[in-house]
Automatic annotation (TrEMBL):
InterPro entries reported in the protein's UniProt record: DUF1285, DUF1285_beta_roll_sf, DUF1285_C, DUF1285_N
Residue span, DUF1285 domain: 28-94, 95-180
Listed Low complexity bias regions: 10-20
Protein's name in the database: Proteophosphoglycan
Region of interest (Disordered), ranges: 1-20
Superkingdom of the source species: Bacteria
Natural source organism: Paracoccus contaminans
Record-annotated membrane-spanning stretches: none
Phylogenetic classification of the source organism: Bacteria, Pseudomonadati, Pseudomonadota, Alphaproteobacteria, Rhodobacterales
């Protein structure tokens, strides 16, 4: 890690603070924290769900979950935050990957690559972005953080969808309707 002047800082302090802040109860209350910006961390989250630190994948799931628990989005930027510092990171597409979905009745519950579960609905919408001819499906996880829905899960959603007005494929979950397009 480096501070805003490019000076190197050991990662141990930030990691230890993140561990204390996150505990074992899931995401930390990052929305309550507004620490000073301390520079950039050489950390990238790739569209396939891999977290790359200084060119190497982070292979310990516990470490990835720890970092994810202190992840915050501000505008188009992503940061790892603790009560005392904020470090910028790169997110290529979305910070999480939805790797499965339970589709039952009026509830579609996604599981992310980090084991988080989120049920689509008014607070967790499903949306489709177009990039060229390819649809890019997402579900909102928390506080401005989305999960890209992987291909196999998206195909399952398409199979479960029903044709709606105007010919769009529609999904329903927790009283909300989501268009998958045509």
């Amino acid at each position: 890690m480096s501070d805003s002047g490019g000076n190197s800082k050991p990662a141990g302090g930030s990691i230890a603070a993140a561990a204390r802040a996150a505990g074992t109860r899931g995401p930390a209350p990052v929305h309550l924290w507004n620490p000073p910006y301390c520079g950039e961390m050489d950390l990238e989250i790739r569209p396939d769900g891999r977290w790359i630190h200084e060119g190497s994948p982070i292979t310990r799931p516990e470490m990835v979950r720890l970092f994810a628990s202190v992840l915050k989005r501000e505008g188009d930027r992503y940061f790892l935050v603790t009560p005392v510092e904020k470090l910028g990171i790169r997110v290529v597409d979305a910070p999480f990957l939805a790797t499965d979905a339970d589709i039952a009745g009026d509830a579609i519950t996604f599981t992310t690559n980090l084991g988080e579960r989120v049920t689509a609905g008014p607070d967790h919408p499903i949306r489709i972005e177009r990039r060229g001819d390819e649809p890019r499906p997402y579900v909102h996880v928390r506080a401005g953080l989305d999960a890209l829905i992987d291909r196999k899960t998206f195909y399952r959603l398409v199979e479960a969808a029903a044709e709606g007005p105007g010919g769009d494929l529609m999904l329903h979950s927790q009283g909300a309707a989501f268009s998958l397009g045509r």
